[in-house]
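Job type: complex structure
Entries:
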Amino acid sequence: MLAPTAPSGLRADSGHAAGLRHLLVVPTAVWTLAFFVLPLGLVTVFSFGTENLITFNVSFGWTASNYAAFGSALYLSTLLRSVALSLGTTAACAFLGFPLAFFISSQRPRVQRLLLAGVIVPFWTSFLVRTYSWVNLLQIDGPADRLAHGLTGHHLQILYSPRSIAVGMVYSYLPLMVLPIYVALERISPDLYAAAADLGARPWRQFRRVVFPLARPGLIAGVIIVGVPAMGEYVIPEILGGGKTLMVGNIIVGQYLDVGDYPFGSALAVSLMVILMIMLFALRRVQPAVEAS
Amino acid sequence: MSLRRHPVAGALALVVVGFLWIPILAVAVNSINQSSLMVSWGGATVHWYSLALHDPNVRTGLTTTIEIALGSTLVSLVIAVSGALWWRRAPARARAVYDAMVYARIILPEVVFATALFFLFLKARFPLGILAIIVGHSVWNSAYAAVIIQARLVGLDPAIEEAAADLGATPWRAFRRVTFAALLPAIIAGGLLTFTFSFDDVVTSYFLGGNSATPLPLVLFGMIRFRITPEINAIGVMVMLFTVTLMGVAVAASTLVGSVGRGRRDALAELYGQ
Amino acid sequence: MNGESSVRLSGVEKRFGDLVAVRSVDLDIAAGEFFSVIGPSGCGKTTTLRLIAGFERPTQGMIEIAGREVTGLPPYRRPVNTVFQSYALFPHLDVFENVAFGLREARVRRAELRRRVAEAISLAQLDGRERAKPRQLSGGQQQRVALARALVNRPEVLLLDEPLGALDLKLRKEMQVQLKDLQREVGVTFVYVTHDQEEAFSMSDRVAVMDHGLLEQVGRPEDVYRRPATPFVASFVGLANRLAGRLVGAAPGERYEVDLDHLGRRSAHGPPGLAAGAAVTVVVRPEDLRLAPATGPQAGPAAATVIDVAFLGAHRMVRLDAGALGQLVAIGQGQSTVVPDDKVVLSWADDDAWVVAAAAQP
């Protein structure tokens, strides 16, 4: 999973040192409880309330009306669009990222470092600026449009549409997919490739029977790290969607900051969380919970 | 093994890596492009840079961002280091809870955090602004830092503390001279990473900044949404250079000063929490 | 052994850039033979093994297995299987699937596959552990899985790259016996690489000694030990007392007459072709060096002082300061009465002396 196991030699502890040690967890505990658990709990509770949009008074009728509003076509379609974009982004990242990670892991160390830098360094630059750059690149008469026009004679009218959001998302999330796959591949001892070949497996069979199963945990980690945050993406659809194509993230922000309908916004946020938890559970089922490193 | 050197994978790899760099290069090129429409080349100029550097919004935004990033980094490191040290000797159940909380804070979309905290502050009548943003950033920043520092801590041979005790060091001195010293690269790497994340953040800052605090990314965001000028590219290039330098230092710190035998892969695994 | 060639290397050379790992090796291993390759680190023995397996292509030369040329063939097309030093068990597969791997690649039918895997697992004494994952097994068990996984495919040749290196001494000794019995039972040609000479000698039909990419000598263990062909083999294999001298000439009964420094003329056996007047080294194995208490006060040229006596279980090893002859070693039960600082007189039987060309000065 995420945190590796500690060596057992550190378990024994004397009395007062142990008491002092418990203090160490206080900052984490306080912060997590006060600013993570509490607010989320609050939001969940309020998602069952109703609000008077004129007086901004929230009252508790314990109604599920906020959730019922999802039934409306507008919100449902937005939700589905978010899921589709997230899945599509994840799939694209996986298909582009896996071969890339594989290629990197099979190079000499010096070349590996270079390629990894090539993948990671863009990730360190302001993603706001990079996303904005895509507006330029994808606009009518921009470089991409000119290229497409030159090659096919058609104009590339994808800016401010779900497709441009998809491009932006794949672009931003690709490094997040490549890295865990790379790490998993790196861990595979070269002897295993040799052993598989020795036992009669051709390169493709080596991949299918040995490499892919061993890299799969990395792939799943990548899918989680891309798919889950992608569902709640706000900035990319805002900039590349031109304000008109909305994902769940945009609606939530809109409800909270523009409309002020906190219960409804809360309901949206809670629903998003629930969907994500379901996704997470499904994915963890596909891989054993504890992978021995 | 012939499997590992397939030419198709190589070509695809280079295309993809190139794809990752195109927007960055486009921004850099446009930052010195005289043509404000940014669709064609109008000659070189540093006009946009001087515009950006003299823009009062940008200057305020920068100072605000730096304050926030420093504050959030400090808080996050305190949380992460103390948590990791506790984790070492914690019982399995407590560890599981801690790990789940760290994982949740990394995975959950920022929008959910930001709205929940916004709501909390609203109800608690806590003023929005720099302090609120620092709190907000620290919630998820501390998780990233925790992963890096914890990975490093676990990789340390427990025998080194015993060796220090054997050589006459009290527990406190053993900690300071051995454990903490060994942790320092991870702390530096974690700190620089959280600084960078804070520096770049949009969503949490948007929600928790209120009217008083407008960090640089929000200045940029506003400019992007309402008045697209090439000044953005200049600001973008400067910001990118800054964050890349920071992260470069972070990586150098965590790999070069790393313990014997741990390679780049392990450092990456730390950064990645695998 | 029925005399057919199982593995033949002809003029095989392997370069890695400027480094020549294997130079011009000619080797002929008979079918059913237990053949070991020993040598110091970096001598090229592992590279040679990898060349036979197909993980490396020779820069020059030809490799044949069971009479068929395989030089250009990748490993998955050669009738060879390898037991790796690290075992290289597939961590995501259980014991059964690991052993079955090669059979699945060969598309062996289900019933036969099951039977053969069960048989191999039994042979490796791993019954009951079919569903275990490698990390749940001990080192010795993992080693046996690696062995079973290789043998189940009935290869022409089994290559073993220091397979017992990670095991403790007792386990290693047990495994050596088991491997030898297994090889005899199965009849497959074993090519075994190890740095442990004793291991190689106790298990093999023939041994090859390599140094810096060259085959120094190939022969039965006893021949390599008693009649080393080159100075390197003389000093690498076992312990040796080396006495410098000059060759006088050939003597009757396939012997040579040697003029030893400080000790005068002695005769010794040796390889054919040594030239008169050449600088030579006479090798006397520690177990052939006799010690007798020094009776008189005059120190003859063959006098020595005992430095220390080490108890090795079955024998005592005596280190001697022999003055101009340097430090010498004697081993045997007959030395049980000496103690440090004793004065002794050294002697040996001519039959136990072996002469080789002197090693080139480093």
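Summary: Chain B touches chain C through one residue (CB under 8 Å). Chain B is about 75% helix and 0% strand.
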